[in-house]
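Priority: medium. Attachment 1 of 2:
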């Protein structure tokens, strides 16, 4: 599920739910980088990155990953339960290209020349220009032993010492200061106890897009004309 509305500028958000053995097919974003947070279970992310570098790494609950615009990547659930990941895009209308649809747009001769096969080898392979988006993996996942090591695309935000902490809440930060891979995008993991509040504040040079993973709270926004808008946020709200 992806949300992008008229109120959003330079940001949008997607909630990706993958059943066991499901794969978000290889794709790339033409106009946006993405920043993702795994809410539950375990996923495997693979990125044939720039500079002929292939990155493959495991992301568990409370961990994050970042993908640059233009980088081909795929995400697959390697756990036994449904995996949920929240993905934020640095564009209000991200344009993604699926590998399956891209190959469907190419002639048999083009693919044959590209992969050093006879064009007839491709004529019997069913292809179309409609992305599959999410597919079912038919075999066991192939997870390299190195996939559990650190990677520049990966960040364990919940294991960091929170820069802001008190008896009524904490705030962990994924930002360029701590994660050099990031640019033009960052994320806070904010926890507020039932007796706490995030003090009134504003961001002079940034918009903010949030997702409620657990609990319920009240949010108040003051507009430039001095009017205020207060509303209740529940689990799953943005």
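Attachment 2 of 2:
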């Amino acid at each position: 599920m992806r949300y992008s509305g008229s109120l959003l500028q330079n940001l949008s958000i997607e909630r990706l739910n993958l059943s066991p053995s499901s794969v978000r097919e290889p794709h790339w974003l033409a106009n946006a980088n993405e920043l993702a947070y795994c809410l539950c279970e375990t996923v495997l992310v693979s990125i044939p990155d720039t500079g002929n570098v292939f990155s493959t790494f495991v992301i568990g609950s409370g961990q994050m990953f970042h993908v640059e615009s233009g980088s081909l990547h795929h995400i697959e659930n390697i756990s036994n339960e449904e995996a949920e990941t929240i993905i934020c895009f640095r564009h209000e209308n991200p344009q993604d290209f699926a590998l399956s649809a891209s190959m469907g747009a190419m002639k048999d001769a083009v693919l044959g020349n590209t992969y050093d096969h006879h064009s007839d080898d491709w004529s019997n392979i069913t292809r179309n220009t409609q992305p599959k988006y999410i597919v079912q993996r038919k075999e066991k996942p192939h997870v390299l032993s190195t996939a559990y090591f650190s990677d520049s695309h990966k960040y364990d935000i919940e294991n960091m010492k929170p820069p802001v902490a008190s008896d009524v809440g904490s705030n962990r930060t994924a930002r360029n200061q701590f994660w050099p891979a990031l640019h033009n995008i960052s994320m806070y993991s904010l926890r507020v106890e039932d007796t706490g509040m995030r003090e009134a504040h504003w961001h002079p040079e940034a918009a903010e897009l949030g997702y409620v993973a657990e609990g319920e709270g009240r949010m108040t926004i003051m507009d430039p004309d001095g009017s205020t808008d207060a509303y209740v946020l529940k689990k799953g709200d943005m």
